[in-house]
Amino acid sequence: MRLRAPAPATVRRWLRRGMLLAVLGASALAVTVAASVTWVRTTSDGHIYSAESVPPAPVALVLGAKVDPDGRPAPFLAARLDVARHLLETGKVRAILVSGDHMRWEYDEPGAMLRYLTAAGVPSEKVVLDHAGFDTYDSCARASRVFGVREAIVVTQSFHLPRAVALCRRLGVTATGVGDETVKRYARTWRVGSAREHGASVKAVFDVLSGRDPVHLGPRETGVDDALRQP
């Protein structure tokens, strides 16, 4: 039996419906992104400072980023660590919590951060490692729920900072933030990271609304408390 091709009028109706659905989908996505970015900016507004003007807090929370194959922090992560070291040296914080990805044995962001800081003269007893900061949400949630952090200065690149501060504040940490801009010279990577924040803001809102647990929660740890007791 020979099948008949759809009539031209039917094809046009299908095309119109498909175009309408595509337009509606794109509009819904645009609204979702805009609303998420607005939430991030509104929640973090008034809580972002320079290293010189930020109010003191007990802890600097440094969010993880790429580590090179030789085990050293890549430039974006090294810049964050330089900011945290400056905050410690100027008395803005009394301990540094480094939070990053150590899901695989051979890839260790917190360990690389510790080595970098101690090589720069930071006492090891002032650095606390969070090996399960697999994303910004997890780092903020674990800072509050695992390490008992109630107030912190979040340190990352400036394009990432509003989302990080917003998440931490929503997850129980009274957070301010200091952003690094020294790595803007890596223009392409900076642009990609900045553009990525639109989608990441949507994820942040869904994470907050879901109230999900971090990938790995674990028991309460006293590392930050111990570091703060050090002279």
From TrEMBL:
Top-rank taxon, per record: Bacteria
Domain DUF218: 59-175
Pfam family of the protein (one): DUF218
The name this protein goes by in its record: Vancomycin high temperature exclusion protein
Organism: Phytohabitans kaempferiae
